[in-house]
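Before we proceed, please read the two lines closing this message. Report back on whether the structure tokens fit the sequence:
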Amino acid sequence: MFDMDEFMQSSTRVFTVSRKPGVSEYKTMAKITGLGIILIGIIAFFVKLILEGFVKI
């Protein structure tokens, strides 16, 4: 059903290969995440304006 030894081997393999991201990688992820949040906010704002009737299409 569930092989604990196989799970431990694959988990060890993942932790061996993985590494801690650097500062530049963190900055890139923060920029992309921030732009995504802003984009979703802008889209939501325009949808709200359209649904409330302020902007006619």
Observations:
- The chain has a mean pLDDT of 90.
